[in-house]
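@channel sequence for tomorrow's demo:
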Amino acid sequence: MSDKNLEQRLNIKFCVKIGKSASETLVLLTVAYGEYAMKKSSVFEWHRPFKEGRGDVQDDQRSGQPKTQRTDANVDMPQSMGGCARRAKIYRIYIHSFIHSFIHSFIHSFIQYSV
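structure tokens (generated this afternoon):
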């Protein structure tokens, strides 16, 4: 979490303590931070829990694993698979063109002999 987000959450908490509404808080944050102010949905999302008594300005812990995990194994994997995947693609193209030319020559010879 960036320091700006933490700072703005603290300011939202302060605004709740002095009785400002979420809309008023949004205006104050926009004046103070300009284009770097939190979006309306984020301000309202944080205003409500603070109004209900939440004291912590940090994000809640999320359950489960992160969407992606960077390890040496999965960083090196695309490089090790690169040659294999490329060869497989070339092989599929080769088979496709072979079948296409075989069918083409078969039909051509069939038409030539049937006439």
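heads up for whoever presents: Residues 3-51 form a domain with the Arc Repressor Mutant, subunit A fold (CATH 1.10.10).
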